[in-house]
Amino acid sequence: MSRPRPEPVQVVKQRRDAVLKALVSNIPYYSFMGFQFDRRGDEVTAIMPYNDSLIGNPMLPALHGGASAAFLEATALIVLSWSTLWEDMESGALSLEELEEGKLPRLPKTIDFSVDYLRTGLPRDSYARATLNRSGRRYASVFVEAWQDQRSRPYVQATGHFLMPQRQDNV
């Protein structure tokens, strides 16, 4: 009795990248804001490249709090969706053809989102990562933090609660 041969790593990477790209491109606001997402294995890092339009207080200058909050919420939603699609993606239940046609499961809906502004967001690139505190069939809790120069010095963090979409048997 022999095991099935594993897929080539390039195919797996291509499928993972396609899922992440499909998730992000499904929300036009993310491209409007310039949000980018970088995948390394099962970890996703969000990037908000600096742009003059993100400045809220030109006297300091400082990033607008709403832009920072939107960046954190986007990171939480993408990481949460990424984690729920992981099994389907790894098993091949999500095909590249379906993704290219835009057939993706619904995204979680935000119940509440509490933001803590820890220090001034400087006029530079920002990075964020999310941690899933709890992810069940109906509800999820996510912690997100963003930093600029040093990951150990976040400038904004948030906790969000999300209503998970009902999963269908076929994805």
UniProtKB/TrEMBL annotation:
<dbReference type="Pfam" id="PF03061">
    <property type="entry name" value="4HBT"/>
</dbReference>
<dbReference type="InterPro" id="IPR029069">
    <property type="entry name" value="HotDog_dom_sf"/>
</dbReference>
<dbReference type="InterPro" id="IPR006683">
    <property type="entry name" value="Thioestr_dom"/>
</dbReference>
<feature type="domain" description="Thioesterase">
    <location>
        <begin position="63"/>
        <end position="151"/>
    </location>
</feature>
<protein>
    <submittedName>
        <fullName>PaaI family thioesterase</fullName>
    </submittedName>
</protein>
<dbReference type="GO" id="GO:0016790">
    <property type="term" value="F:thiolester hydrolase activity"/>
</dbReference>
